[in-house]
Records
---
Amino acid sequence: MLIVKYPRATEPLWHEWDRKAQKCGLRHTVYAVNGDQYTGEWVDNLKHGKGTQVWKRTGAIYSGDWKFGKRDGYGSYSIPDPVTKEYKKVYTGWWKNDQKCGYGVTFYPSSERYEGEWSSGLRNGWGRMYYWDGSIYEGQWLADRPGGQGMLRLPNENRYEGGWKDGKKHGPGKFFYLDKGQLFEGIWVADIPKCGTLIDFGRDEAPAPTQYPIPKV
């Protein structure tokens, strides 16, 4: 009877060494093959509990909660400034399955900031966004854009209150021209007012009212 022997599949030695290590509990800094380093707690060879991860390629740092090898719980993520090399906080808040999820604060370039709810790494739910030009949006978000009901306040204090879709004014809404003392109320479609009424509103307190008041119908 002919017996055929097949060669056993080989694997890198570090796989075997890693199994034998069976990291569990609090450990000192552990270095990955690519140079990444982690200091903190382990369970069954997975990052689990409190720990700090440093990525060698980007220099980014995450410090916070881990669950079975993924960021899960509360933690902060920071990156080094390309010029000063000082660390700048990018996100502080809750994570789930390695993505932003729950309440958190994100700091963008140009001093922009978002405070609010996240889901699967995207802005979802209720939140407030501070833009570089001084505008502030507060309201509902959907798939990383304003969607639902919200208010946008401009640097000159004029504001829009109403519906949003895909980041644009959409549906019933009111635009307060506080600088002129007027109020437009109507229907918007993709940031464009389609129909509505314009009346005087706070004309006596307006810094730059129109020359003639709008007559009442």
---
Amino acid sequence: MSKISKFFKGGGSAASKGRGGPSPQEALARLRETEEMLSKKQEYLETRIERELAAARQHGTKNKRAALQALKRKKRYEKQLSQIDGTLSTIEFQREALENSHTNTEVLKNMGYAAQAMKKVHENMDLNKIDDLMQDITEQQDVAQEISDAISNRAGFGDEFDEDELMAELEELEQEELNKEMRDVRLPSVPSTSLPSRP
């Protein structure tokens, strides 16, 4: 067994071991703590790099040995900084993957609950009974529509008369009324004098 696998196998807390591994929340919390620690180390290394660069400039050509030592330390700090950048990227990727896995697990769990609830709801439903019920509903809707149509149509009172006959009778009445009005009209008499001739 390698040292790394021993480290990871033996690295959990007693509470986590009893449950068969850490919960996603615990793992996420630890990853965030590690990210914070590495970010602080980054800041520290950036400060040290600036100091060593300033020291190398200060010694410059006066004390070449001190300037070279400062530049060597700066290079070591830059290498550490680069390693931390890579580690941070890896941790960030792992944290995002764990968050996504946890979200997917919760979604699947809730979908399972919903499926069980639907199964329970449909437990007492028989498709044949539903089909019969839907046919009954359709039939009753048709009956209701027929009743509604029957009620909304004009009642048949007076529909047995011929419309053409009625129109002819109405025209006769109008003509009689017109003749009566014409008899009562007095026209002016025609003048007896002759009209003047043209000038």
---
Amino acid sequence: YRRLHTRDTRLSEFNQVERKVMLGSYTKVLFVRDPFHRLIATFLQGMGISPSFSSFVQEVLDSGMHNGSVAWKPLVSLCRPCLIQYDYVVMFGYLRQELGHLLHRAGLPVGSLPPELTDSQVQWTYRWLSEQMFSELSAQQKKQLSHFYRWDLAAFPFSSSFLSN
């Protein structure tokens, strides 16, 4: 398949047989994160020019699925979990635990993980941030965000997401 070696060809441009051949020899790992946490991180990193989280969320909703940034587009539209059979799905918030398992399965030393934040610290911090940021949103924005990320919420176990409620 000549197109396999071109840099600008997207996976979706290959037919099913070509995808299967191309991806068959790779270990495919997908890193996923609660969509609301992704929004918070994007806002805090200054990727949105809005003065408030609420106005940033409105920008995201107004941009829609097709015009939005990769930083906040629904994961399902970016990683195509129905198209690609991933070998591992690693959840942010359980990163240390899951990366240890993944390294072990790959035959790499598990002790080489950096001793930065523990998963429980990350989960607590994002829980607190989520409560603060979620309270800034109108009922309409909350409803629209849940709808915007409905496929992510259905595809991945984000049971504690504020958008799941």
